[in-house]
Amino acid sequence: MMRLPASLTACSLLLLLPLFASCHPTHTLEKNKLVFMEQFSSTGSRFNWKNVTCPLCKAVFAILDIALLSNSNEERVAQAVGEACIRLRLADERVCRNITELFKDDFIQALRESVLWPSEACAVLLGPSCGKFDLYAPWNITLPKVPKPPVTPPSLPKPGSPQSRVLFLTDIHWDQEYEAGSTADCNEPLCCRKDSVSKSWWKRTAGYWGTYSNCDLPLRTVDNLLDNAARTGPWDWVYWTGDIPAHNVWSQTRKQQLSELSVISRLIYKHLGPNVTVYPAVGNHESTPVNSFPPPFVHGNRSSAWLYDAMAEEWAPWLPEQALKTLRYGGFYTVEIQPGLRLVSLNMNFCARENFWLMVNSTDPANQLQWLVHILQASEDKGEKVHIIGHIPPALCLGSWSWNYYHIVNRYESTITGQFFGHTHVDEFKMFYDEATLTRPLGVAFIAPSVTTFINLNPGYRAYYVDGNYKGSSRLVLDYESYILNLTEVNHSPEPNPKWTLLYRATEAYGLPSLFPSDWDGLIQTFIKDDRVFQKFWYYRHKGHISTPCTETCKTGQICNLRSGRYDMIAQCSYLNDFEENFLQAAGTTLC
Q: Crossing angle for the helix pair 531-541 and 553-563, nearest 10 degrees?
């Protein structure tokens, strides 16, 4: 058998990095793959990025392009990827073999259909110093010629005005193989499982309700959360922004994904009842291979029809037929929640760098953003307010997608009154400013904490209080509460009904009169001046489980992160004159 060059083995491993990166959500804006590798190494894997130089990467991709001209080389390329994964100890042999087998068909097909040149591929993997990624070159959506209406600053509703109470769930990550007493520290990306093998003589074991480690949740914890949420109702409606399966991305099947979709959807319906409407969004873990979401131009067995059709069937009790129609087409939809309030659920996988199908064409996949503009203009014309939900925050998206979304939010700032996302697993927010000066706050994306513990977190969920259903309502978020299950307490002597506790209420914790964009911008200024308040945020960000404070460079990076609602806005931090001239360098070091 012909053996591919060793350099191809090394570069083939780089092709898998976006796939492994999905196993651990990163909280940065750029170079998320490098950050992931640093975090992944801390769990027992080893990878030396110094072995990968720019000339080597380009040479290897040139070889790879030639190799893939022949169908007979597909299996050899897959074998090279598996061998590289093993030799460089990215994961143990079983994980490497399984994930290579799972991803090879879709990934190689997407790579073959793309127009990637070696310099473009290496620019993605190693950064802009190694080339320019022209494949993701700038593109623009078209805005209507209708002038933007005058902006009226938001004001608090009159005392006693109705409020809507909205339950928010995200990143459940149910692990069918979770087992109390199993090892919590293993050599695989996901532990606390029946077959987890301890990586040292000292064995830390999985708790009954969950574990502070790189572990997901047993079904009993999800069931208990929903039971607790139902008892603490009533809820006017629910936003649920995806990621149902566990992080065992190397061993998932379509049958398993669909089974988990069905179990969790029906469990939510069972606990909350037929009178509470749930509005879901598609997460990046719903598909297998993970992050694989072909745009609608891909047909046949490689398309996402198997997933979207099942979602439409499971979510039919909550969504009208017109919403189900666009859900089947591209995983997104719009629906009227109440007179005067419309919801848009976006498929954020069409903006994700890890979605390798976007190598084929990343220009507004499924025309989703252009469709969003159409919906927003119609809502503006009718005087509707709009909430947007999605899984991945826009700041973590591909550059042009993120830039266009930011542009849309600027144009329709009076119409978009709520943005709700998940994915990072932590409790944070992202600011949107006017494009002209980047100083006037006009929007905020709320990023809610995960249900899962992955990694080193308490389970949690969120309750939003929204300006209610009455004529002239702003439909803005007025307050929210974050709830957790304190694993330190409930695992000590497990009981059938553990207590979920209120971690904090936003206005009380931060001393804010409201949660308008100007309030969040002012809170960031408070973080800069008062470290005590920032450390409180840092504690809440990790759902009440953090061992070390965030100071100096860490704090600088986090403040920059909060201000950056768009992927390229780290430079905006220069507006924070309280920092020294090396602020940008410090922020870059932190975030990368």
A: 70
Q: From CA 16, how far away is CA 18, in angstroms rounded? A: 6
Residue 586 has pLDDT above 80, yes or no: no
Is the pLDDT at 284 greater than 60? The verdict is yes
Cα–Cα distance for residue pair 110/360, rounded to 1 Å: 6
Token pair of 233, please?
């109702």
Q: Please give the sequence-ordered ranges of beta strands (E in DSSP) within 422-500, or none if there are none.
A: 428-433, 441-447, 460-467, 477-484
SS3 281: coil
Maximum CA extent, the chain = 78
Structure tokens at 176: 């069918």
Helix (H) or strand (E) holding 221: helix 219-231
So what's the pLDDT on residue 37?
Answer: 31
- pLDDT: which is higher, 2 or 292: 292
Burial of 119 (0-12, 13-18, 19+ CB in 10 A): middle
CA distance 288 to 585: 38
Over residues 265-291, the mean pLDDT reads 96
CA dihedral 437, 443, 449, 455 (to 10 degrees): -20
The length of the chain is 592
Contact 379, 372 (CB under 8 A): no
Helices (H), 455-530: 487-490, 506-510, 517-529
What are the start-end ranges of the H helices in 512-582?
Answer: 517-529, 531-541, 553-563
Distance CA 120, CA 112 (A): 14
Smallest CA-to-CA distance from 507 within 471, 481, 534, 536 is with 481
- Measured in degrees and rounded to the nearest 5, phi and psi for residue 247 equal -90, 20
Pair 304, 331: CB distance under 8 Å: yes
pLDDT in tens, 94-139: 777 776 767 667 766 666 666 556 666 677 656 667 776 655 568 9
Burial string for 361-383 (b: 16+ CB within 10 Å, else e) reads ebbbbbbbbebbbebbbebbeee
Rg, Å, the chain Cα set? 23
DSSP state of 569: G
CA dihedral angle for residue 197, residue 203, residue 206, residue 212, rounded to 10 degrees: -110
pLDDT band at 198 (very low <50, low <70, confident <90, very high): confident
State which amino acid sits at residue 161: S
